[in-house]
Amino acid sequence: MKAIIFDIGSTFTKGVAFDLDKSEIIGRAKYPSTVNEDVTIGLQNVISEIERQTGLNIRDFNIKKATSSAAGGLKIIAIGLVPDLTTEAAKKASLGAGGKVIKIYSYELTSSDLDEILYLKPDIIILAGGTDGGNRYYPIINAKKLSRLPLNIPFIYAGNKDLQDEIKNIFLSNSKEIYITENVMPEYGVINIEKVQNIIREVFLRNIIHAKGLDKVQEIIDGIVMPTPLAVLKGLESFSEIYGECLLIDVGGATTDVCSVAKGEPTQNNVILKGLKEPYVKRSVEGDLGVRVSALSLFESAKKDIIKSFSHDKVKVIEEKVKFLNINTSYIPKNDEDLHLDAILAYFAVKIATERHVGHIEMVYTPMGTLLFQYGKDLRELDKVVCTGGPLIYNPYRVESLKGVIYSNDEPFILKPKNPTFYVDKEYIMFAIGVISEIYKDKSMSLVEKYINKV
Mind telling me which residue stretches traverse the membrane in this protein (predicted)? Predict the structure, then answer.
């Protein structure tokens, strides 16, 4: 059985061909994306190269599917009531569905909030707020304000279930497309995100692909089946079925993604778990931590520590090189000095992104003694980390970059893995494994075993 899986990105369109019966890659190609012209041009160039490599025609492949993060990805705005509760739950649902959360809002939307929403041009807006039987005011008032905006996009309501009919009528009366689903937080502190994630994916397939002009690919292949980040997450789930709880780090030019498949419950005595319970499969995206498009913001985030890695006379040169990378986003390092800089930038992208993803412990002093509260996942005992993304696959100094994942005694309350084994997606196929896993789980796991190897 032959499969060909594509990733239509904003910069490149990539394709990987497989013989699934043998669990082998039989062809691969990439070509600059042509989303702003005709998306099928870049796709057809990739197909032609893979046909040349394999001696097969595109019609000979049993499976022909694609993922996409083109045209800015799936841009989502999440709106809730309390920042650390319903708003955070809506954000987690969006990220877990492969979305790019461009803004979150809490409480009542102001005029300036509404103006900003129009400026941001989201693909989907998720409105949450109130536990079931709880707050009624904020979901209703925000629904009224949102429904009057001149936006022709889908809205998803995932708040207080008692308001579903009223919310639906508010949007329909203003000729808006509205999807109603289960509350992301039906009870205080309880997260329920699976249903809304399914709706997000359904909306992506039905609406967003067409809106971004990507539906033309259906003339050539079987269509785009999910956002690329969701495909990577599903690939990691296949990895976890073999190796157990795990973490994935994906360093890119614009963002660094971190995904975990783990419970993250407290691993030490006398620790009290607080805050929202984290989803077992969790994804976080750091839009300010990339080694090209976001190189300047990454540099500013860790400037003092980055400078320490170089001699004093090199500081100005390094600052200029970072500015160069920020502008020349397709630049590939050509000498040892540039490779070293890329590795250092990747180290801090990994370090900061992992610290934001994992949980932390807060020490509180009370008359009864010292209390330890854990927020988020404790991943100190997690022992499998998968790395992907150019700097972590191709850079000869990648082992140094990966040290950013590891727990530090200098920061004992940041709950990063203590002694992980690293695996590398050396063929850059995690997204394809994720797509295949939805059709043939066993074959996706065979690909994991063959191609996701220890560093």
Answer: none
